Amino acid sequence: MSQELHRSVLLREAVDALVVDPDGFYIDGTFGRGGHSALVLELLGSGGHLLAIDKDPQAVEFARSRFHGESRFEIWHGSFADMDLAAGDMAGRVSGILLDLGVSSPQLDQPERGFSFMQDGPLDMRMDTSRGISAADWVNSESEAELAWVFKEYGEERFARRIAGAIVRRRAEKPFVRTLDLAEVVKAANPAWEKGKHPATRVFQAIRIHVNGELEDLQQALAKSLALLKPGGRLVVISFHSLEDRMVKRFIREQEKGPQLPRGLPVMDRQIQRTLRSVSKAVKAEAQEVGENVRSRSAVMRIAERLG
């Protein structure tokens, strides 16, 4: 398997925020091609351990090859939504959890994975190619109303209904099987193109998020992080679009506030059980990183610390 070049976004910033104890137990919930994992291992002492997780069988294979013989490292094939299963009996003992969301560069750059609207390939888009429904199966079978809902909710596409209608009319004549075929139909149905953005960008994003259950997985992972992290442990999340970032921001804010009690209840502030505190303001890539890696321009990193 080729070892595709991949630049981890906010690499140093994320790992510096994550590793609070060199001998701690850490989880990299989105291994990708191991950029963050490699730097975490550099900072870990002999007593440290890193559990990496990835849905993508190619990423898992790459991890086993890259870190073969590294006793402080293990890779688990699956979703970070199941990180509690992967971590075994480590509840309340994890020093840090890193989630680098979205699609990885190798996935985008391989036409055969079906993520790209710029290169022709089979319309797949599954991060885990060993299970689930492909983008082609979904696009060719879902109702027009559901297509429109997904495009609007997950892609924030203004012309969701118009594009969904065009897809349904075309698939009645010929089912979609290739990425560029779908991209051309979306392009033709989109009446107002955003400057500097391909007209199929939002629709492809929406399909990818839906097919892979990305937002549902994120919601589960955030909730499970609370039971896994030990007091002082860090949660570091890098998001690449507003839906993810809003979910992460809202989650941290809710945990900072603690349970919402009825007004007038005689409870002192110090008695409210809060589970997280925000460590810093949202972190974004510096101009130099954006210049070197255009995919970093939309990245937003949020950091929270588990309270005792």
How would the blueprint of this fold be written?
Layout: H1 11-18, E1 25-28, H2 35-43, E2 49-54, H3 57-66, E3 73-77, H4 83-87, E4 94-100, H5 105-109, H6 135-141, H7 144-155, H8 160-173, H9 179-189, H10 201-212, H11 214-228, E5 229-239, H12 242-257, E6 276-278, E7 283-284, H13 287-292, E8 300-306
Parallel strand pairs: 1-2, 1-4, 2-3, 4-5
Antiparallel strand pairs: 5-8, 6-8, 7-8
Largest sheet: 8 strands, mixed
Helix content: 40-55%
> What is the radius of gyration computed over CA atoms, rounded to a whole number of angstroms?
21 Å
- When the domains are counted, the total is 2
What's the CATH topology name of the largest domain? Rossmann fold
Mean pLDDT: 93
In quaternary terms, these chains amount to: single chain
Shape assignment: globular
- Broad structural category: alpha/beta
Series of secondary-structure elements, N-terminal to C-terminal: HEHEHEHEHHHHHHHEHEEHE
User: How much beta, percentage-wise?
Assistant: 5-15%
Describe it for me?
The chain has 308 residues and is of the alpha/beta class. It has two domains: 11-106 and 214-306, Vaccinia Virus protein VP39 (Rossmann fold, 3-Layer(aba) Sandwich); 113-212, Putative methyltransferase TM0872, insert domain (DNA polymerase, domain 1, Orthogonal Bundle), CATH 1.10.150. Helix content is 42%, strand content 15%. It contains 13 helices and eight strands. Strands 1, 2, 3, 4, 5, 6, 7 and 8 form an eight-stranded mixed β-sheet that branches. Helix 11 packs parallel to helix 12 (242-257). Mean pLDDT is 93; it is low at 1-5.
